[in-house]
Specification:
Layout lengths: L2 H4 L2 E3 L7 H31 L6 H30 L3 E3 H34 L4 H4 L2 H26 L17 H5 L5 H37 L4 H30 L7 H12 L1 H13 L1 H25 L1
Antiparallel strand pairs: 1-2
Length: about 325
């Protein structure tokens, strides 16, 4: 990354120009990040500690929570720091690390959501083969493939982008380092085409996953509609609903952020959309899954009750 000597730092998009609004954004980011950390931490602890949740879906939920925590910890702390200290700078290496981690966690998350769709497909359409197709070894291999795919994708894009000569200034139109915004600063036509080709390949791969998801849900809905009882249909739909909501939130915000028409683009709108796809979904995902999963709710309630009882015993015994 030879640019690090000539481009010591980047300027991120300021979340606000008034000091009062900067502090308001700091407290807002702090509240969202604490809520995301608490929610994902509770989900991770519940899945890890309750043997009833040691299922393929529980295992994939655990991995999904890790990607959500990674996304929050990649973008929000620097935004909070800049809002609190009234600055917009980020070092060249810090920007490269942030871009790499964001692509890594988002790529792994989309891969995991695709795998979770396959889990629902097998559970509803091929229930007799569920234990065979989604055994512990198969689940571990699929999760490892999701993380490896995210890592290799992030490594390729980050290395390609940050090897380009940058001659269009150092101001990014985003409150965190994102590869499309860094590419706008490039003055290498061949390098830009190379990274565009990589992006096209990644988008083609993700489009293939999206087609697989759509095909799987068509098969799922057909199988559910063949269930004779309404209670059975409701139960089957309930197991798919959280995944559909999380997937729709993830895809709709990301697609709108990157494909919205330039005519409606503005710094304030770009900021809101960026927060919607990079910060809000990781905070909401645990809530969405726990609201529709009775076993998960019971495990979290039991864990919190146990912690509260233990704290009260320690308090009174100390007194």
């Amino acid at each position: 990354m030879s640019n690090s000597s000539s481009m010591p730092q980047f300027l991120l998009l300021a979340v606000a120009d008034r000091r009062e609004l900067q502090l308001l954004h700091f407290w807002l980011f702090l509240a969202i990040s604490l809520a995301a950390l608490l929610a994902n931490g509770l989900l991770l602890s519940a899945v890890a500690c309750d043997h009833h949740l040691h299922t393929p879906m529980g295992f994939f939920l655990l991995n999904l929570s890790l990607t959500d925590l990674g996304c929050i910890c990649t973008t929000v702390p620097k935004a909070m720091h800049n809002s609190l200290w009234d600055t917009t700078t980020i070092s060249y290496m810090g920007c490269a690390a942030q871009a790499f981690l964001l692509v890594f966690f988002l790529g792994a998350e989309f891969s995991l959501l695709t795998i979770m769709c396959y889990d629902r497909y097998v559970a509803i359409c091929k229930p007799l083969h569920y234990g065979t197709l989604l055994g512990s070894r198969a689940c571990a291999h699929m999760a490892a493939a999701a993380w490896a795919t995210g890592f290799l994708n992030a490594l390729l894009h980050t290395a390609s982008t940050f090897s380009l000569p940058l001659c269009q200034g150092n101001a990014l139109g985003q409150f965190f380092c994102e590869i499309p915004h860094i590419l706008k600063l490039s003055c290498s036509h061949s390098g830009y085409l190379r990274e565009t080709g990589l992006m096209f390949f990644t988008l083609s791969l993700e489009l293939g996953w999206f087609v697989f998801i759509v095909f799987s849900y068509v098969q799922i809905f057909r199988a559910v509609l063949r269930i004779p009882s309404q209670q059975g249909q409701h139960k089957a739909f309930s197991t798919c609903l959280p995944h559909l909501i999380v997937l729709s939130l993830f895809l709709s915000t990301a697609i709108f952020a990157h494909l919205k028409p330039p005519s409606i683009s503005s710094p304030s709108l770009d900021l809101v959309v960026s927060v919607l796809y990079s910060v809000v979904p990781p905070a909401l995902n645990p809530l969405i899954y726990s609201l529709r999963n009775q076993e998960l709710k019971d495990a979290i309630r039991k864990m919190m009750t146990g912690c509260f009882s233990g704290a009260m015993k320690c308090l009174f015994s100390g007194a």
